[in-house]
Amino acid sequence: MHAGLYRSLYRIRRVEEEIARVYASDKIKSPVHLSIGQEGVSVGVCDALQPNDVVFGTYRGHALYLAKGGDLRAMIAELYGKATGCTRGKGGSMHLIDTVCGVMGTSAVVGTTIANAAGYAYALKLRHSKAIVACFFGDGASEEGVFAETLNFAVLKKLPLLFVCENNGYAIHTAQSRRQGLPDICARARAYGMPAERLDGNDVLTLRDKATSAIEKMRAGEGPQFIEATTYRWREHVGPGADYHLGFRDRSECEPWEKSDPVRFHAEQLDSSTRRAIEAEVEREVSSAFEFAEASLFPDPWELTTDIFKEDSDASAACPG
User: Fold this and answer.
1) Which of 23, 165, 197, 265 is most buried by its number of CB atoms within 10 A?
2) Alpha-carbon distances of 146 from 137, 154, 197, rounded to whole Å
3) How far apart are CA 168 and CA 170, in angstroms?
4) CA 82, CA 289: separation in Å to the nearest integer?
5) What residues form DSSP beta bridges with 133?
6) Whole-angstrom distance between the N-terminal and C-terminal Cα of the chain?
């Protein structure tokens, strides 16, 4: 149990540390929103999911993509803007997709994937599927209109949709207490008739157990469930460095989260030989992924005109008005 969780946590941490190291070289062609410090939320929830379950996420989606099984080489190539990337070098860090393993997409626009997830969950219900959808979003997204609309719709239709709010306390540089008159996101979910629970995002074991219970209820047809996982990002909002010098938060805020770091906690549950074997395997995989990205080619110029919306001129002409 601890070995699998540690491998996932350590893998995400090392991938992002390497992204931060390489970023200054300008080889990475995309802005990056690192998940360092927030890995436990994605790992805890995704460990409770089945292969045919799907997830939708945010622009801070590296941890979610990897925890659900996304192809690491394709992810790093995407950050490099290469044709071998998971969206052929067109999406970058904020738009990661791997439908084979159920990563249906992350988005740079706050709150958009909340509605996308509900649509997918509705389709699953209409098809009488036992699969479920997990939708990850930040505390800032809970202030978007689509959040309220989707919670209401999900309850009315009893959708198999697990809402996972990754509450790191900030929307860019503004603390939750300065944005919300009543900073109780679970209370808003309950107001729509949805079970909701606030959990420590660094407590991966409890988070996984609670997610497992919620998912079982959804598979039984009980409707949507809501988890608010408190967490904390160790790095700046966007980029590889720190942002404490900006003055909107103090370094001391992060210290309790660093002390309860789930990467270190799960490492300490393993014997040294098992831990070293996991770390060596991960280091080889990470090194290989970056080498793959380096060696891959950039997209051909003709790719600029593919995968875009295009009106059918004949159909447009046939439409009245």
Assistant:
1) 165
2) 12, 12, 21
3) 6
4) 12
5) 54, 161
6) 63
Which structure tokens are listed for 9?
Answer: 């946590």
Between CA 242 and CA 40 the distance in angstroms is: 20
- SS3 of residue 179 by DSSP: coil
Here the tokens at position 29 are 């062609």
pLDDT (tens digit, 9 = 90+) per residue, 167-221? 999 999 999 999 999 899 999 999 999 999 999 999 999 999 999 999 999 999 9
Cα distances (angstroms) measured from residue 206 to each of 41, 224, 231, 303: 11, 19, 14, 45
Cα separation, 201 vs 122, whole angstroms? 28
C-alpha 258/C-alpha 234 separation (Å) is 8
Two structure tokens written together for 222 = 């009980």
Query: Residue 155 region, left (φ>0) first, then alpha (ψ -120 to 50), else beta?
Result: alpha
Angle value at C-alpha 78, between 75 and 81, nearest 5 degrees: 160
Give me the phi and psi of 133, to 5 degrees please: -115, 135
pLDDT value at residue 201? 98
Q: Does the global pTM surpass 0.85?
A: yes
- Residues 101-117: what's their mean pLDDT? 97
> Going by C-beta distance under 8 Å and a sequence separation of 6 or more, which residues neighbour residue 154?
118, 121, 161, 163, 194, 223, 224
> Which stretches does DSSP call E strand in 37-169?
54-58, 103-107, 133-138, 161-167
- Range 247-285 burial, b when 16+ CB lie within 10 A, else e: eebeeeebeebeeebbbebbbeebeeeebeebbeebeee
